Amino acid sequence: MTKRTDYISWDEYFMGVALLSARRSKDPGTQVGACIVNPRNKIVGAGYNGLPAGCNDDEFPWDKQGTFLETKYPYVCHAELNAILNNIGMDLHGCRIYTALFPCNECAKAIIQAGISEVIYLSDKYAGNEIFIASRNMLDKAGVRCRKVESGISRIELSFNEQDV
User: Fold this and answer.
1) Arithmetic mean of pLDDT, 80-87
2) From the candidates 80, 106, 118, 162, which is the catalytic residue?
């Protein structure tokens, strides 16, 4: 018998962890996840967009529009920042971060400050927005490599049925 040949790549695996992490988000409009990986392909942090620990998800707004304090924007912590803050306590220099959406300018600052050397993203759908133009500019100037994930698959299905194991 020979080994399987249809296994997923490292990029697919870590982006899958980021996408699975996004499923923890309570945000009804946008679910984003992130996964930080060290140079030895070990996961050292993961996060998703949500309220800071200790803030009740039912006591804050999830709206995208309205006055600033009536929207989610002043309260939600983005997936990339959560992954950095949730890391296992190690230096993140030289690590890669996998994220569903290209990071905003605030997350780019945290990525740069943490010493993360590469951003791998699934979607850059807000590329024309000034926040993301600023993000890309900072990441470029800081020498952080950015690339869209390349995948030979479009989806993975998970089963929690014990007969499938």
Assistant:
1) 97
2) 80
